[in-house]
Design brief:
Elements lengths: L6 E5 L16 H15 L3 E7 L8 E5 L2 E6 L9 H4 L3 H12 L7 E5 L1 H14 L3 E4 L4 H6 L6 H13 L2 E4 L2 H11 L6 E3 L14 H11 L10 E5 L8 H7 L10 E5 L6 H13 L6 E4 L7 H7 L2 E4 L8 H8 L4 E4 L4 H4 L6 E4 L4 H13 L1 H14 L5 H20 L13 H8 L1
Parallel strand pairs: 1-2, 1-5, 2-4, 5-6, 6-7, 7-8, 9-10, 9-12, 10-11, 12-13, 13-14
Antiparallel strand pairs: 3-4
């Protein structure tokens, strides 16, 4: 007897999986939601993704891939909002999702991404009487440890999701330990599944052709001017791009090295101006190059064209940029924090920096740029090591988590009661 097709509701409230990674509040999570949904669709699941409508021209629904639909749900003003602003519209968004789906035939499971989505996931799981898997991608309490102030209502919201979800999925063992130790999660309900990687796109083959394509598409980078140090990400303090600008004049072994800053958009011009001034003050104004965030289709060539990929973040729960770069044969130099400490094998696939100081990044990057055999050897080892993060492997692990939840439900007198009956907004008001 054939098993009926599984149906999954994916909640990505504050950001659409179609948002360009590297722009404001769009990053690895957007990539994760889009790629995992596509992979699950290929494996026969019917997947509906729900996000908040933040632009007037967003369609009610659109197809992301075979078996995968994206719904834009009205909640609050039809305009971009920060996650903290979106939190004030959680109940409205939850009701909107329920209304959109009331004639859709029901779901087997709900998977939420980020704490704002998790608050909706709690209530939707109760209404639909199905299991709830939650992922955070970043945690407020972790960011506070690295001197990044976060509102207490975010951490209170995260604690509620941890307490109410049937399973919490972390990207690394480090994140799992933090969820258990700092958020009080039950160890049996925290599973580790890494983020994924499209190994058919991110690979080390075709270096010369990649450089030519980047030179044609992004001439402002000056690909052939000297070895390129690549930064990909949002232009915000936590990502640490200013550390790289300060480190560049300290790399004395390669005074021809250039820094490629790929990220942000027109909304980040003030930060770009600050970074340009910092470069001028350091005497390297002509060696720091800027381009807006690029589409996913251009990233593999960028990674291959660079000599080193630098990730000086204060914290990364996984560190997708480093993994994509290493899969492309480019060693990563990154801060020894969070998931980066798990994905980078220091001295073998890249270099880990213990302190977020320009001189430490300059030393690590300079070592790779001045020792070509070492850099090539690390790049080859990195590409081989990253195969474990293929989306096929990740999707299979996620399905193991899903199926365990569904078996648990089928084998017990499973009846979901509300573990937190008051509206999400009341918790946010109390915590603030």
């Amino acid at each position: 007897m054939l098993r009926p097709q599984r149906r999954l509701a994916v909640i990505s409230t504050h950001t659409s999986p179609l948002a360009r990674a590297g722009t404001t509040k769009a990053g690895g999570m957007n990539v994760y939601v889009a790629e995992l949904s596509r992979q699950l669709g290929r494996l026969g699941w019917e997947v509906d993704v729900f996000t908040r409508r933040d632009r007037l021209d967003a369609p009610h629904a659109e197809e992301l891939a075979p078996g995968v639909r994206l719904f834009h749900v009205a909640a609050g003003p039809t305009a971009p909002l920060t996650p903290m602003e979106v939190a004030g519209h959680v109940s409205e968004f939850t009701d909107g999702v329920a209304e959109v789906t009331q004639r859709g035939g029901g779901y087997d499971l709900v998977h939420s991404h980020y704490w704002v989505s998790g608050l909706s996931g709690i209530e939707l799981a109760r209404r639909w009487q199905i299991p709830h898997a939650a992922m955070f991608h970043t945690l407020g309490a972790v960011k506070q440890m690295f001197q990044q102030p976060e509102p207490q209502y975010r951490i209170a919201g995260e604690r509620r999701v941890v307490n109410c979800a049937d399973v919490v999925i972390g990207a690394t063992s480090h994140e799992r330990a933090f969820l258990i130790g700092q958020y009080g999660a039950e160890a049996s309900r925290v599973q580790v599944v890494p983020c994924g990687l499209d190994v058919e796109k991110f690979h080390p083959n075709g270096l010369k052709a990649a450089r030519r394509r980047v030179a044609e598409a992004l001439p402002e980078l000056g690909v052939f001017d000297g070895p390129g140090i690549l930064f990909v990400g949002r232009l915000e303090p936590a990502k640490g791009v200013d550390l790289l600008v300060q480190a560049l004049p300290m790399i004395e072994a390669r005074p021809d090295a250039t820094l490629w800053i790929v990220g942000g958009d027109e909304r980040d011009e003030a930060e770009r101006s600050r970074l340009r001034q910092l470069a001028e003050d350091g005497g390297v104004g002509g060696r720091v190059r800027f381009v807006n965030a690029v589409g996913r289709e251009q990233l593999p060539d960028l990674y291959r064209a660079a000599s080193v990929c630098a990730v000086p973040s204060a914290y990364e729960s996984f560190g997708l940029v480093a993994v994509e770069a290493m899969a492309s044969g480019t060693p990563a130099v990154a801060t020894r924090v969070g998931g980066l400490a798990s994905t980078i094998a220091h001295g073998r696939t890249g270099m880990l920096v213990s302190q977020r100081r320009p001189e430490q990044f300059a030393s690590a990057i300079g070592r790779l740029l001045s020792d070509e055999p070492l850099r090539v050897r690390m790049g080859g080892a990195a590409a081989n090591a990253m195969s474990v993060y293929s989306w096929q492997c990740v999707a299979a692990s996620i399905l193991d988590v899903y199926e365990a939840l569904l078996r648990e439900r089928a084998m017990s007198d499973w009846q979901r009661e509300s573990c937190c009956p008051d509206p999400a907004e009341s918790l946010l008001v109390a915590a603030s």
